[in-house]
Every structure is written in C-alpha cells, then in structure tokens.
Design a protein that fits this description.
By secondary structure, this protein is an alpha/beta fold. Helices cover 34% and strands 22% of the residues. It has a five-stranded parallel sheet with strand order 3-2-1-4-5, sandwiched between helices. The longest helix has 11 residues. The site of [cytidine-5'-phosphate] glycerylphosphoric acid ester (C2G) has 18 residues, from strand 1, helix 1 and strand 4.
C-alpha cells in the first residue's frame, strides 16, 4: 500500500484545494492530510485563518479522497509526520517547489502545479469588496 501525505491550511476551502487533493490521492492508495494549526498560520502569515483549525479539519476529513487528517503544528516537523504516518510520497503545490526537498531521504517528494487564478486571499478580497 502506497501512502501519500500532503499539508495545507485549506482555509475558505475552494476548487484549487480539492484539485490538489484529488491529484495527490491519485498518486497512491491512501491520502493523509496535515492541516496547519491556527497558531502556525498566525506565525507564518500574521493573521488567523477565517475558519478555525477544527472546522478546516472537519471539511478536509469529509472529502472522499481523504483517508486521515491530523494537525500540522510546525513546518520543521515534516519529516517526523512523514515517518509517523508511514508516507511514501510527500505532495505539495508548486508554490512550495524545492522547499521540502530536505525530506527526500525518507520519502519521494512531488510538487504539483497550482490551479491558476483561485486563492483564499482573492476570495477574501472579493467578498470584502461586495
Ligand atoms: N493550491 C493549489 N491551487 C491553488 C491554491 C492552493 O493547488 N489555486 C494548493 C497549494 O499548493 C497547497 C494546498 O493547495 O498544496 C493547500 O494550500 P494552502 O491552504 O494555501 O496551504 P499553505 O498555507 O501553503 O500551507 O506545510 C506546509 C503548509 O502547511 C502549507
């Protein structure tokens, strides 16, 4: 059995998110998703997500292509999460290209192209302008 792991915030869930998860799932038999903690987002982006980590986890866990979800507390723990979940492949969108090559000693690392012209920031700006 080939396990695929991926990570993300998945805030204000949109079509770019489902497409990367579907493409990640297609690379193996089982898809595990690390959903980034609220505290990690605050540290990384300087703002809290629109949806709480519990809500984001509930949404991602409900998807047909997702087998398991867990909280991603920090970017540095990536190798530990990969080992803990027995992942054979790490998938990330290509906005992260090269950034996680350092886990290449424990699994294969694949960067998939992002879906063009959809982003959480764009959605927030759109709604704010209504
Ligand atoms: N994504 C995509 N196309 C978009 C938007 C996002 O393919 N138009 C992908 C990203 O490349 C990523 C996943 O969807 O693989 C989740 O994106 P974010 O929620 O923005 O995740 P991010 O905040 O980058 O968190 O350990 C890494 C982080 O937790 C990743």
């Amino acid at each position: 059995e080939r396990t695929v792991i991926t990570f993300g915030t998945f805030d204000v869930f949109h079509v770019g998110h489902i497409r990367v998860l579907q493409r990640a799932a297609a690379l193996g038999d089982r898809l595990v998703v690390g959903v980034s903690a609220d505290a990690l987002n605050l540290a990384k982006k300087g703002r809290a997500p629109v949806y709480s980590q519990d809500e984001r986890m509930e949404i991602v866990a409900s998807l047909r292509v997702v087998d398991e979800v867990f909280v991603e507390e920090s970017l540095e723990q990536k190798r530990d999460y990969i080992i803990e979940h027995g992942a054979d492949v790490l998938v990330m969108g290509d906005d992260w290209a090269g950034k996680f090559d350092w886990v290449g000693d424990v699994c294969k690392v694949v960067y998939l192209p992002r879906t063009p012209s959809v982003s959480t920031t764009g959605i927030i700006e759109h709604i704010a302008s209504l």
